[in-house]
Amino acid sequence: MANKARPRRSVLYMPGSNARAMEKARTIPADALILDLEDAVAPDAKLTAREQVCAALREGGYGKREMIVRVNALDTPWGLADLTAAAAVKPDAVLIPKVSSPAVLHQAEALLDAHGAHDTALWAMMETPLGILHAEAIAAATPRLAVFIMGTNDIAKEVRAAHTPMRLPMITSLGLCLLAARAYGVGVIDGVYNDFKDEAGFAAICLQGLELGMDGKTLIHPGQVVPCNEIFSPSPDEVELARKIIAEFAKPENAGKGVITVDGRMTEILHAEMAKRTVAIADAIRELEAA
Q1: Is 258 within 8 Å of 269 (Cβ atoms)?
Q2: Are residues 95 and 68 in contact, defined by beta-carbon separation less than 8 angstroms?
Q3: What is the DSSP letter of 160?
Q4: How far is C-alpha 37 from the chain's CA centre?
């Protein structure tokens, strides 16, 4: 299943009905691509989009980017056929929309296994009131679940909340999902920012997501990828300090200690665990960008 230290700073939606966009995506430096069969595709283009997404994944050429297919909800006319088609091409993950209980993940898991896609992970859109209230049960549903994607536009609509710059009306929803995800080792990717021309607003919302604990952000425009990657990457200073913390705890004289001093600061063993993740992410980013 998913690598827990895998970078997911930038997760770009690409409409499955736009073959040209999926071709261009091979050169965009996003950490992950969501080839979308749901919201970005009109009903009369669903079948064409499914064929084009499967053809793009068969052709490959996306390097080490994580490839995800967002299917339509399983109770729609297209959902089960989308999932069956995705299972045949075995993407890294399938993103299930409007997950409101563990049952839909179990249904998706059974179908993927029935078609031999045993290594395809599950991602869950968290975008309904029931889904958010059941976040803990959903996070615990299956080890195959790798990521929560926050559907902030749908959350705002469903709870009748204003979509303000600091998102205070939806902080409870974001926080509940973050807590549930972290309790069960699930990644969390923040929702989209709709005004792709507002660079300052986008940077501010990325920083807020980072401070909340998000692993990265879903994006709607290629121009958002580079600034998003910069904000969600550990800085050189953070990586240097992390390596120093790891090295200090590894010294024989610090064996078994729960607290040591690093650069004049009290540093606990929990900081060493955080440092290991920082270094692992930094190394994985370097490997991804070198590919």
Answers
A1: yes
A2: yes
A3: T
A4: 17
User: Residue ranges per domain, the chain?
Assistant: 10-232, 236-290
Tens-digit pLDDT profile for residues 217-262: 999 999 999 999 999 999 999 999 999 999 999 999 999 999 999 9
pLDDT attached to residue 83: 98
Structure tokens at 217: 């952000």
Q: What is the mean pLDDT of residues 7-13?
A: 98
**The model's pTM:** 0.94
Q: What angle do CA 77, 219, 73 make, to 5 degrees?
A: 15
Backbone angles phi, psi at 67, to 5 degrees: -110, 125
CA 241 to chain centre: 26
Q: Can you name the residues that pair with 15 across neighbouring β-strands?
A: 36
Residue spans of alpha helices (H) in 60-99: 79-89
| CATH homologous superfamily of 10-232 | Phosphoenolpyruvate-binding domains (3.20.20.60)
Give the Cα separation of 74 and 72 in Å (integer).
6
Q: In this structure, are residues 259 and 267 in contact, taking their beta carbons and an 8 Å threshold?
A: yes
Strand ranges (E), the chain: 10-15, 32-36, 66-70, 93-96, 121-126, 145-150, 187-190, 216-219, 259-262, 265-268
